[in-house]
Amino acid sequence: MAGPESVRRGYPEGASITRWRAPDGWMLRRFDWPAPPGSARGSILFQGGRGDFIEKYLESFAHWHARGWSITAVDWRGQGGSGRTTPAPNVGHIADFAEFIADLRALWSDWAADAAGPRVAVGHSMGGHLILRALAERAIAPDAVVLVAPMLGLRAPVSPRLGEGIAGLMTRLGDPARAAWQGNERPHTRRSRQSLLTQDDDRYADELWWQARDPALVTGPPSWRWLAQAFASTRTLSASAKLAQVATPVLMLVAEADRLVDPHTAIAVARRLPDARVVRFGAESAHEILREVDPVRLRALAEIDAFLDARAGKRA
């Protein structure tokens, strides 16, 4: 069963929702929750996955905050509460994943200038991919990184190479910002959206509750251009020689039964990182490990806590 609804469906005391201006003027929705004075453990910058929004992770933020971490999170450009890059309000679109990296680079620079160390980057799914890519490109400099079900390879009904080719062709045959499919998180599946994300009914309902409260948080399916960029960016990163130069300690949580991202590619990428620990979950977990049933979620949080205690020690 999920934890207290008051934690999952309300903003915590002391937290703020503001807007952060990217270098090109785009306004991204931002969440900040400073640690209580005198108990600061360090600072976490959290980035969610495709279609995510800040409120989905309030329960995890509360856990880390109780341990003394200051929390910052931002809705990615083009999704959640950070507006859309296409006139269609229900399509998640980006022209180039490099735009995400540029936003993350500038955000990290601004945030790290004031954030108490150690500074940790935590990313779920697409957020995990972009954090690792930014790390490899030296766009960010965290003391430790946690990747939760990272999108380092996509699940597709065809091979990644063919999927990338089809997505690229579709961007040329029509509006590249049009929806790649309708409805579900993944095309050509009879599985329900919830079964792809989490086995916890209450936590899945939380997402729908927040979206009903604020329909602007609904992102919807990705565009053909987003899909083409996702295939290209994951392919490029997984083959990058820069992975071997990443000295930052990395914890990777992988759901082996994940039906949205490819866990095998994630594990292969982890083997190429100089300092990476992989924690695997079996059939007990779908994609959203931090929003799963308590045995999964609590194990994940315990692994993260132990990793940060060991690898991101509190500074004097």
From TrEMBL:
Source domain of life: Bacteria
Molecular function terms from GO: hydrolase activity
InterPro entries: AB_hydrolase_fold, Hydrolase_4, MAG_DAG_Lipase
Gene3D superfamilies: alpha/beta hydrolase
Coiled-coil spans in chain: none
Keywords: Hydrolase
Keyword Hydrolase: yes
Residue intervals of the Serine aminopeptidase S33 domain: 39-294
Protein name: Alpha/beta fold hydrolase
Organism: Sphingomonas floccifaciens
